[in-house]
Amino acid sequence: MAIMKKYTLFSNKTRRNRTIQAVLAVIVIITGITFGVRAIFYKSFKISGHLKTAKTFVLKGNYDAGLGELNKALAIDSEHALTYDGMGYLYAHKGEIEKAKEFYSKAEEKKVTNSRIFDHRNTGFDFISKGKYSSAFVEFEHFNKIKERDLKGVFGMALAYHGMGKIKEAIDTYEDALNISPKNAQILSYFEKAKMEREAGSILCVLDRNGQPLLKKDIKTGRSVYPSESATACDKIIGMNSEEFGKFGIEYALKDYIPGNEIVLTLDLNLQKAATSVLYDQMGSIVILKPQTGEILAAVSHPKFNPVGIDKKFGSYKYNANKVFLNRAFDMLYEPGSICKLITASAVLESNADMKDIFPVQCKGSVVIDRQTFWCWEKHGKVKDLQQAVNQSCNVAFAAIGSHIGNDKLVDYACRFGFNLPLEMQLPAATSTIGIETENKFETAEKANGLGKNYKITPLQAAMLAATIANNGVCMKPYIVKEIKNIKGGVIYKNNPVVLKNTLKKETAETIKKLMIDAVEHGLGKKAKVEGIAIAGKTGTARSSKRGLDGWFIFFAPAEKPEIAVAIVCEIGGKGMDVAAPKAKQLVLQILRK
Questions:
Q1: Are 137 and 162 in contact (CB under 8 A)?
Q2: Strand, helix or coil for residue 324
Q3: 8 Å CB contact between 450 and 413
Q4: How many whole angstroms separate alpha carbon 505 and alpha carbon 391?
Q5: Which CATH architecture group holds 41-195?
Q6: pLDDT of residue 306
Q7: How does DSSP classify residue 433?
Q8: Cα–Cα distance between 260 and 162 in angstroms, integer?
Q9: Can you tell me whether residue 208 is helix, strand or coil?
Q10: C-alpha angle 523/529/531, rounded to 5°?
Q11: Roughly how many angstroms between the first and final C-alpha of the chain, as a whole number?
């Protein structure tokens, strides 16, 4: 019995040891598997974290930081397919299409699949919505390789082709989408649109505010097509497109949106043509604004050029002494002369000056200021008040006003009207300027009359001067692009009216308006008078940068309820009352006479 008991005890102990060993082995195995699985998942988790962070940076436009995160992911696993996918995603957003394709090809070789992080179908449609069709194309091309016969993927590819102006490829791809979904109404509508464009041979790119075409692109050659009416009427605005000599105007400024998008300008082609016909025989410019919004309804510069066949004519235009390519409306600075007497009048009205301290003024044709002769254009005799000073545009009277209110007040009010303030627009615009300091009273007299070497204005700024008074003293920011729509009709960009300056009190603007109306009815602006339409205007005459005089007329009409604010400058044309005021009358008869 003792032997048997001993044997049993030994047996139990052995069994227990074996059990412990087995348990320990299982624990070791489980622990190993756990650590192995955790290591695998931890590695994947780390890579995923870097990729998500990279995407966040890319969408914020911080590409360097995004690239840094992707490189961290590659350092963990240099063969990770989704990381290469992320590289392609980054370069697609940067617009570096060839690099994007290179990395997408690597990702495809490594059997990448479409992920929630870099969802190429959704990203492609996002690019479509922004009008970035080359980037959209590379996304859909990649997506359709890793996921075949996806209806939205094929449709997206067709839209990308369409937006890039590749109409044949777009039609073929729309047909592929219709093979998947034959009765899809949305796809059918774009398919029909593409076929109509193929028949027309061109794609519409730029329109005026009323939908009239201003610029198209030839489907086969990609060259610019200018509808006959807009070719010369909008020459400086639409610009030119030459393979040899480059681009300017809208063709250059919005090149990233042409073709594939519809760019709607604030211009009214009918007003543009009217202004062109009025200015036809004269170097200079006409700008027409909508006072309440700042929309540029017309902007004409003469002499003009024809962008059709520009390569053959470029040399003759470029070396023309009259600067044919210069956009005088926005980018030419002139001495303003008497049109800026309206600024001086505004300043004195809001300075609470006692007019009895200024008027009457005796104008003998000149006055000596700081031992220098300051000339008036005529002997006006006794100028009794501000209205008479404006009507006769008396330099001596305005010199007296300038002396009374001082240089600082003149500069302040010019700046309130937008001088010394750069204008941010889609097209280049020079900054109208007034000198801040003055050396003597003679220079102050010049400023009060819109004269002097540092007093310069663009026709656009001159139109803004009239528009501000028309708009109850509120100066609106000018703009020329109304909106941009993508291939699906969605709005990519939209301009809304923006107040640039609250320039004058409403009462002051009303007083200035009355002065301007009387200046047309009874003053130097008589040649602008139109029966039945009240016009508020001001003439101006200034020294030209060449020999001669630049003639100005600025106005708004109808005065009671302004529809247009206009600046006309006739370069080396003579006095404003003789050359610019009559053109204002012609313009009003064309565009406001019903």
A1: no
A2: coil
A3: no
A4: 22
A5: Alpha Horseshoe (1.25)
A6: 87
A7: B
A8: 7
A9: coil
A10: 135
A11: 134
Strands 262-265 and 202-207: parallel
Chain centre to alpha carbon of residue 394? 40
- What residues in the chain have per-residue pLDDT under 50? 1-7, 9-10, 34-40
Token digits for 186? Answer: 């949305």
- Give the β-pairing of 474-476 and 224-225: unpaired
Kindly give, in sequence order, each residue whose CB lies less than 8 Å from that of residue 439, ignoring residues fewer than 6 positions away. Answer: none
Residue type at 225 in one-letter notation? V
Which phi-psi region, left, alpha or beta, contains residue 492 (left: φ > 0; alpha: ψ -120 to 50)? alpha
What's the pLDDT tens digit per position in 156-204?
A: 999 999 999 999 999 999 999 999 999 999 999 999 999 999 999 999 9
Which residue, among 283, 205, 209, has the nearest Cα to 251 in the 3D structure?
205
What single-letter DSSP state applies at residue 432?
P
Cα torsion angle, 442, 444, 447, 449, sign: negative
**How does DSSP classify residue 532?**
T
H or E, element range at 124: helix 120-129
SS3 of residue 450 by DSSP? coil
Residue 145, helix vs strand vs coil: helix
Residues in the chain: 594
Instruction: Tell me the one-letter amino acid at 504.
Output: L
**CA R_g for the chain:** 36
Q: Which is it for strands 262-265 and 361-363: parallel, antiparallel or unpaired?
A: unpaired
Q: Is the peptide bond before 336 cis (omega within 30 degrees of 0)?
A: no
Distance between CA 412 and CA 341 in Å, rounded?
14
Ramachandran angles phi, psi of 417, nearest 5°: -85, 5
Q: Looking at residue 508, what is its pLDDT?
A: 98
3-state secondary structure of 231: helix
Residue the block writes with tokens 């044919």? 324
CB-CB neighbours of 507 under 10 Å: 12
In 3D space, the residue among 551, 587, 547 whose CA is nearest the CA of residue 570 turns out to be 551
CA 235 to CA 302: how far, in whole Å?
Answer: 10
Q: In whole angstroms, what is the distance from residue 162 CA to residue 168 CA?
A: 9
- Determine the Cα–Cα distance for residues 275 and 335; give it in Å rounded to an integer: 22
